[in-house]
Amino acid sequence: MAFKIGLLGLGTVGTGVAKILLDPVGRNPLIKEITIERVGVRSLSKTRDISLSPDLFTTTLEEIVTDPDIDIVVELLGGLEPSRSLILKAIENGKHIVTANKAVIARYGEEIYTAANEAGVYVLLEGAVGGGIPVIKPLKQSLGANRINSIIGIVNGTTNYILTQMTQEKADFDDVLAEAQKLGYAEADPTADVDGLDAADKIAILASLGFGGRVKREDVYCEGIRQVSAVDINYADRLGFIIKLLAIAKGSKGDASDTLELRVHPTLVPKTHPLASINGVYNAILVEGEPLGQVMFFGRGAGEGPTASAVVSDIMNIVAILSSGGDSKTLEPLLTCTHQHYCNLTPIEALETRFYARFLCRDVPGVIGHLGTSFGKHRVSLESVVQIGFQDNLAEIVVVTHNVKEGNFRQALSEIESLEAIHSIPSILRVL
Ligand SMILES: NC(=O)C1=CN([C@@H]2O[C@H](COP(=O)(O)OP(=O)(O)OC[C@H]3O[C@@H](n4cnc5c(N)ncnc54)[C@H](OP(=O)(O)O)[C@@H]3O)[C@@H](O)[C@H]2O)C=CC1
Ligand SMILES: N[C@@H](CC=O)C(=O)O
Ligand code: NA
């Protein structure tokens, strides 16, 4: 029996999906049962990297989501609209949904899952986080017995690629970003990658799965990588760290009944940490749960083939259920989302972490003493203080703190900023 899909979008990921479906030999036999019924795109005249009958194409995407012949709508457009409306319309028309759109799910998950549960259809999204890495399904199913303590991930391929090239090849930020765009890793608007928004969407989704509650996307604390400079990468290296954009979800008591830390920011990761060696477009998600302990998911986090691998596996999942007669509107609980409450998030000022800060100081006697006094006054204890270089006649002092409350650290910094000996504080980064 053939199952018909309507493909919304034939860009990087859509093309990858179509390539797998048109080349089923040697793959799971279910793939032969999936046919592409319609393809929705913006331009009918664009040259494409795949040969599909022109009859399949339309620019009226509404036709696809209401087509009675279509079983599964695969949304690979990106962006919030028209993706959200089309997903909802498809659900209203009884279609199952497969999407890789983390932006839509992180913001409209409640609306979409409520509609899907009422309509008795699945909304699967393995491609949305970690590209080809299986992480959504493991969190929903294989790790279900665990009380999750933390999820820490490198979940944006573009920024990991940029940071890796800046670290290993001393490459220029803009050049590497252009390369990541050419390779199909970056979002249509790469601001979402560079400013950490894409990683924030992804950690909101992972946290919701791991900690069993909804997350308000706008509450996820988020800093991108624009402020990471070659100077900091170099200092981090000398101090035994690699700078990575981390997405962090931590339960303060290991369950959602208490507050949850949820944040994305560039982080100095000790070179010995498992996430320190994840380079290029690779992503990794380190989950710690009780009783399992640590488990790390690793693989290609973006790009045509890896993401299509995850999307097609979701399509197959639905096809497998439908072909075994499971179309009775009773959804498999481990494949759906039925969260009702929202997790409480810890405000960033209450966060406890280590910090790295770089100060440019006028070379007057006693600067380090002044820094120490101000930090001490605000109960910030220092792990190391180094003065290595000079920049334009200003001494460069780098400080790494012990674990401190972010609020205390910020208070100390605002006092330090007003010291006459301090010219500026070009960088402040958190340390894992
Ligand atoms: N690229 C990646 O590595 C990954 C992407 N994702 C997610 O997958 C989704 C797709 O990404 P990607 O394939 O890179 O995106 P692309 O920009 O490469 O492709 C988008 C596709 O959607 C079509 N499209 C976009 N807007 C409209 C519209 N308003 N009406 C009709 N067609 C439209 C475009 O048509 P046309 O071809 O005519 O321009 C194009 O075919 C996004 O949600 C992204 O976040 C997830 C993981 C990895
Ligand atoms: N732009 C994203 C694509 C995958 O989600 C990334 O770079 O990771
Ligand atoms: Na994935």
Report on this structure.
There is one protein chain. The protein has 432 residues and is of the alpha/beta class. It folds into three domains: 3-132 and 304-336, 3-Layer(aba) Sandwich (Rossmann fold); 136-300, Dihydrodipicolinate Reductase, domain 2, CATH 3.30.360.10; 349-431, Alpha-Beta Plaits, CATH 3.30.70.260. It is 33% helix and 27% strand. The protein has 13 helices and 17 strands. Strands 7, 8, 9, 10, 11, 12, 13, 14, 15, 16 and 17 form an eleven-stranded mixed β-sheet that branches. It has a six-stranded parallel β-sheet with strand order 3-2-1-4-5-6, sandwiched between helices. Helix 1 (12-21) crosses helix 11, helix 6 crosses helix 7 (173-182) and helix 12 (367-377) packs antiparallel against helix 13 (406-417). The protein starts with a strand and ends with a strand. 44% of the residues are buried. The model has no long low-confidence stretch (mean pLDDT 95). The structure holds NADPH dihydro-nicotinamide-adenine-dinucleotide phosphate, the ligand N[C@@H](CC=O)C(=O)O and sodium ion. Residues 126-127, 129-131, 133-136, 310 line the site of sodium ion.
